[in-house]
Write a structure and sequence with these properties.
Helices cover 32% and strands 13% of the residues. By secondary structure, it is of the alpha+beta class. The protein has two domains: 68 residues, no CATH class; 121 residues, Alpha-Beta Plaits (2-Layer Sandwich), CATH 3.30.70. Strands 2-3-1-4 form a four-stranded antiparallel β-sheet. Helix 3 packs antiparallel against helix 5.
Length: 191
């Protein structure tokens, strides 16, 4: 017996809201083991999603599609070594990827706001890292809107012993920072 068509309307589900969702791929190790092979496979998935419209008006300008992965602790610990702070053990910190404006004064104002929110939630600012980027292969459209990319490292605050409680604190920091920056300046995104 084969099923065809969409389920009938029931509860909160209404088939009129169905649409194609081409453009999502998943690559996992079902045992949870980390490996570079998974990253290579995920990049292959991204290359094969070109048909979903992930390209912009120029051949070398895309929509910013990417991959989501676990925090690469060993890499970040090494990368942060020259920035004047040490990372604690995995699970004791969070990393925020922040896309900031190129203007130094505005960027610094947003960073200060994020630092205030971190302190206000009782968490610890460990430090900032400028993410190395290479825009040599970007199209002119992408270069025109290229953000200044920084990472903020946030340590677990005193009395936050539960992993889920720390995750909630990080979520609150992200949402408060998004809202504070959204209403203060242009096209800055906190991820």
């Amino acid at each position: 017996m084969s099923l065809s068509g969409l389920p009938s309307k029931q509860g909160l589900y209404d088939p009129q809201f169905e649409h194609d969702a081409c453009g999502v791929g998943f690559v996992v190790n079902i045992k949870g083991e980390r490996s570079h092979e998974i990253i290579e496979q995920a990049l292959t998935v991204l290359e094969n999603l070109d048909h979903r419209g992930a390209c912009g008006c120029e051949e070398n300008t895309g929509d910013g599609a990417g991959i989501l992965l676990q925090i690469p602790h060993a890499f970040l610990k090494d990368a942060c070594g020259g920035f004047g702070f040490q990372l604690p053990d995995p699970g004791e910190y969070g990393v925020g990827m922040i896309f900031l404006p190129d203007q130094r004064d505005q960027r610094r104002r947003f960073e200060k706001k994020i630092e205030e929110i971190i302190a206000d939630t009782g968490q610890k600012l460990l430090g900032w890292r400028k993410v190395p980027t290479d825009n040599m292969y970007l199209g002119d459209t992408a270069k025109e809107f290229e953000p200044f990319v920084r990472q903020v490292f946030i340590g677990r605050g005193e009395g936050v012993n539960d992993d889920l409680a720390f995750e909630r604190k990080l979520y609150v920091i992200r949402r408060r920072a998004e809202n504070a920056i959204r209403y203060e300046g242009p096209s800055t995104k906190v991820c």
